[in-house]
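REQUEST
  id: r-88c1
  op: predict_structure
  target: Cobyrinate a,c-diamide synthase
  payload:
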Amino acid sequence: MKPQFMIAAPVSGSGKTTFTLGLLHALHKRGVKVQPFKCGADYIDTQYHTIVSERESVNLDLGLASRTHIQYIYNKYGEHADVCITEGVMGLYDGYRRMQGSCAEIAKILNIPVILIVNARATAYSVAPLLYGFRHFNPSVRIAGVVFNQTVSPAHFAMLKEACSDAGIECLGHLPSIEDINLPSRHQSITSVEKQSIVSVSSRVAEQIEKHVDIDKMLNLCTRIFPCRYTLPYTSEIGIEAMHYSQGKRMQIAIARDPAFCFLYRENIDRLAELGKITYFSPVYGSDLPKADLVYLPGGYPEFFARQLHRRKRLMLQLRDYAEKGGKLLAECGGMVLLSRSLTVRKGGTAYAMADVLPFECTSADSRLTTGYRRMNYRNMEWKGHEFHYSTVLNPDALPTEAPLYTPAGTEVGTPIYRYKNVIAGFTHWYWGETDVMKFWE
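RESPONSE
  id: r-88c1
  status: 200
  body:
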């Protein structure tokens, strides 16, 4: 038995992330070991969670993984924690088709209750029917209680509590409006300065949570049997293929990880660790390329570090030499940009030379966000991933795409997947928690 719950909201922008960070901070300050999770493919909130809780956050995403795998990784990473907290995404019931893939579906799969965060800045007793609806809409999704965000006065909160009482839902407290609470922009790398800002914000929110939210009551209401119910044995067959590899030659794996290359899924890294020894290196801060049988360049924000990356001539030569000699290399989004001929950050600005492994130029000038889930059949396997980028390729036909990519609904998208020798590159961030990543090169 341990406290475990999801922090969700009726709509986006209600304050889920701010509240989650404040609660993580408050519990960490008490000496509680909290395992954070994040619904969806988000690469940014998981970094915030990790900074505040000092425990690496894990994605739970039905767009990338099966229901069984969601249960598996929840149990796996939550096993040694005192409390498990999952932050939702969008509105509680917002899925890719009705509630399919939504936070509500994940809460149902894991059998965890929901703490609803409601932005009350411009409402009072009118929240009663909203709360009543969320409580009764789907009995298999249990709303354990509500916390109101951005209350403006004690009288305002008193009306909100009356609404809770009449809706038959537990009121766990509120957060008054706090001036100058701003997390770093989501299109911004997390350097040491941003880390300090995140900790400062979470600390200020934690102080208000301690004053105005009944944390102990929340934990007691949400104590549940752990591990969650499982459709396969806890020692599921997930991971057997990777373990097969690990019984042979132990690989040396080099992973780029710094403020420019930071879009990583925790389970992906753990699966790679089953194959051999991982060594991290930093293109931004001037690391050499470690000796490796496999190099992984994840996505991130190379556009913010174009000048620094351009100056890493030795690393660029090492990457080019590794690729030309047939080294296995997986480059996702920002990692692919690093392997391109050049990166232009501003319209009419400098085209910074990159590693020149792939024969095209990239730009983030006049950028627009491209995002969505992607599916691909490659080497007789289905691959699942997520696309999230502002950069574009100026001459995408310089290499033929290896396979068409589709949305989960089956609509083909123009996103390319490139192969040059043993280099696999594209804008998609792949998830291989249920897939043997080495099959890219078979």
